[in-house]
Amino acid sequence: MSKSVQYITLLAFLIISLRLSAQYYETGQDPARLKWEIIKTEHFRIIYPSDYRKDAIRAGRIYEDAWQLISSDAPDNRPLRRFPVIFHNHSIESNGYVAWAPRRMELYPLSPQDNLPMDHHHQLALHELTHVLQMESLTKGISRPLSWLLGEQYTGALAIFTPYWFLEGNAVINETRYSLSGRGRSPDFEKELKALLLEGDGRYSYSRMLHGSYRYYTPDYYQFGYQMSAWGMALYNRNIWNDALSFTSKVPFSLNPINFSLRRNYSTTKKRLYNITMESLDSLWRSREKEMLFTSYDTINNRVKREYTSYMSPVAVNNNTIVAVKTGLSATPSIVTIDRDTGEEKVLHKPGYMQPARISASAEFITWAEIRTDPRWSNRGFSVIKILNRLNGEVRTLTHRTRYFSPALSDDALRIVVAESTPDNRNTIVIISAGSGEIIRSIPLPGNIMAQFPRWSQDDSLIVFISHSGEGEGIMTLDPQTESFTTIIPAQTENLESAAMAGDTILYTSSESGITNIYALTPEGERFRISSSRFGVSDISVKGDMITFSDYSSSGHNAAVI
Known about the structure:
Layout: H1 3-17, E1 36-40, E2 44-49, H2 53-71, E3 83-87, E4 94-100, E5 103-109, H3 120-136, H4 143-150, H5 152-158, H6 164-177, H7 187-198, H8 206-211, H9 221-235, H10 240-250, H11 257-266, H12 270-289, E6 298-299, E7 309-316, E8 321-328, E9 334-339, E10 345-349, E11 360-362, E12 365-373, E13 381-389, E14 395-397, E15 404-409, E16 415-421, E17 427-433, E18 439-444, E19 450-456, E20 463-469, E21 472-479, E22 484-492, E23 496-502, E24 505-510, E25 517-521, E26 527-529, E27 537-543, E28 546-553, E29 556-561
Parallel strand pairs: 2-3, 3-5
Antiparallel strand pairs: 1-2, 4-5, 6-29, 7-8, 8-9, 9-10, 11-12, 12-13, 13-14, 15-16, 16-17, 17-18, 19-20, 20-21, 21-22, 23-24, 24-25, 25-26, 27-28, 28-29
Helix pairs in contact: 2-3, 3-6, 4-5, 6-9, 9-12, 10-11
């Protein structure tokens, strides 16, 4: 081949390459049968399977409104080029993330059972668009021509210089600041850090908190990152993090640009800010505790000293035996029985992946939901119902390829109620046979609200559940015979974690006092608080006149009883 032909061939390939598109990083595949559609708004390209059209249209409006709020924090940024937002509604995940090679947002929009009292799309929009703004802020100064030359990989690589605690903590600030809910307002979001400072080993070093530990439980970077980001804005300047991102973009070769910005503009460092934040929180929380009275509860489980272990979803099967999900840093999650008198434990079963770790029990049976990922399509998943006979150890899978959540056994152990959410976001309460898994009754929820943690009344005549909608969370009951719903507590922004019935009285957990505790609501409308936990309770269950629940401590969740 002559030199001239070689040059022409090389030039042709270079020209052709300008027209090629390639996926630099992908997170899995959706089922091949899906038909994809696109909605173009002013700032976004909403990409979604056709069976999600109705919710994608609604999401487009939510994301446009959220971007107007978020971008007002950085008016000097260049206008946002249409940003791809991709929905994976056949996944069983509830998550979202922003990637930059290529630039896009990937969303798994299933609203989780333990969601906050706010619209899930609204929370995702405020949180993930903060990440978009953060990445867009890294295209200033010398980084702008470098991103033209080196591509989107350069901007993505530049994010390495921004610590995760800042990226996520700042996003939690915005999901809280621009809504009436958000994790920043949830007592459960801060309880692990609070218990560590007030009851546990005290303040960890910045290095241990940053990198985690295999020996000591450390709150994740969302929790301490939110506190550091918020205290940085409160103590120094509300633009402290805009300045840090701008400096990172303009002086990336400094290798530690966030620290340089903090030192140069505010005479502090990441480590110094961490120490100030922990000292401030310790002082604030201790001063608040002086005005409170707490109650110690009968702890059922024995605990190995200094070993972080949690007993989730404790349920009494009789006066002497409690079943619970046991988790720990070095232990595979397991379903255990606990003797109420001695604390002696027996492992019944090691289940598959459960999220959240909730069980229901009646007589000799225990039921729960397990996550199943499609072996071929990683962006498709299922939630199946399993049942265990604790007397003979037999485990059966009752349903297959379903999206059933939070199963609860009736007192006679013949029926199981579950919450169902389909890929096209149709929400129903389904009653299945505890023997065969066959559907007995499927009842659509009014206004397509979502049911969280449905539970049977003690006489199996009613189903009580947390109602979740864009207005927040409330409590409703369902009469399965007449398929009629009754609102007990209207939707509001108070975080309601679980509900149960003791006779005709509704018991539920609420964050009203600033700590999640158990409340009672009588048929006459009288409302009063039953528990006074120091750090918060969860997972309430009723057997006769006994209430079992998880009570948080610096060593993990304890199985407790009233």
